[in-house]
Amino acid sequence: MMMRHSTKRASITSAYLVPDESIPLAILSTAARGVLVELFVSEIGDPAIAYHAQRSYHEP
Predict the structure, then answer these.
(1) How many domains does the chain have?
(2) CB under 8 Å, gap of 24 or more: what pairs does 1-4 form?
(3) Which residues, at least 6 apart from 44, have a Cβ–Cβ distance to it below 8 Å?
(4) Could you tell me the superkingdom of the organism this chain comes from (predicted)?
(5) Alpha carbon distance 49, 60 (integer Å)
(6) 20 belongs to a structural domain
(7) How do residues 2-12 score in pLDDT, each as one tens digit?
């Protein structure tokens, strides 16, 4: 909801970002409107499963 109302910038900070289906769609649609979208996630995850789950979303 907050991303839908963003007009200039949207920042997401998460140690382990493993989104459901709605988050990638919200990110893409917000960026398509010309809003700067920033994602701050950990580069190296402690639990291996969380690290790999998070990394699976990085490419898209």
Answers:
(1) 1
(2) 3/27, 3/29, 3/30, 3/35, 3/37, 4/29, 4/30
(3) 51
(4) Bacteria
(5) 19
(6) yes
(7) 888 899 999 98
